[in-house]
Design goal:
about 200 residues, alpha/beta, Rossmann fold, 8 helices, globular, GTP binding, GTP-bd, P-loop_NTPase, G domain-containing protein
Length: about 200
């Protein structure tokens, strides 16, 4: 995919069922990407959604759930054998290959973390799977309660939980939250959309 100065490639990354496709819908302003709230896979592979905002074309890449490909591979004997001999890349290496590829050239990763699990240290191991030295990473916390989003305390909770897991410190200025909602046209969803696009712009 050819990229111009007015286009940006954004990869949405996270565990299966964390709300990646819901975030895609928020950014598009409509229900387009298939989404659910359980741990069953929705996205079979990296899928591109084109969004034009303020003269900039955003290519939003909805990636496959991090734990999804590994679990599927574990059920296939041939895949297990190939992985044992280092022939077949696992889900993590496939993701890194996609993120570091040249077509598309990813400019930013939005890492999704479930709002109910931000205090769980193991959830932040996902962050360590990303090539943070080569690509900018911002955090989007999904399924947040309305009152929690307006209270900045949740960002400190994220920072504290990531300590000892993530090298250095998570930048709280590169975090936004997505509220739980039933209607994509709710004003709170529209406000969230503006904030996330502002976050993306800051990271360019």
């Amino acid at each position: 995919m050819r990229q111009t100065q007015s286009s940006v490639n954004v990869a949405i990354v996270g565990k299966t069922g964390v709300g990646k496709s819901t975030l895609v819908n928020v950014l598009q302003g409509c229900e387009d990407a298939k989404a659910n709230n359980d741990a069953r896979p929705c996205t079979a592979q990296a899928t591109c959604h084109k969004v034009v905002e303020d003269g900039t074309t955003y290519h939003i890449w909805d990636t496959r759930g991090l734990n999804e490909a590994s679990e599927e591979a574990a059920t296939r004997p041939l895949e297990r054998l190939l992985r044992f001999f280092g022939v077949s890349p696992d889900a993590d290496s496939r993701l890194k290959k996609f993120l570091l590829g040249k077509d598309p050239k990813i400019d930013l990763v939005l890492l999704c973390i479930d709002g109910s699990k931000i205090a769980v240290k193991t959830q932040w191991k996902t962050y360590t799977k990303l090539p943070v030295k080569k690509i900018r990473v911002a955090v989007v916390v999904t399924r947040m309660r309305d009152g929690d989003i307006s209270n900045s305390e949740w960002k400190k909770t994220c920072q504290d939980a990531a300590k000892g897991i993530v090298r250095g410190s998570i930048d709280v200025s590169l975090m936004e939250g997505v509220p739980t909602f039933t209607d994509i046209q709710d004003q709170k969803v529209k406000d969230c959309r503006v904030k996330i696009f502002t976050l993306i712009s800051r990271c360019r």
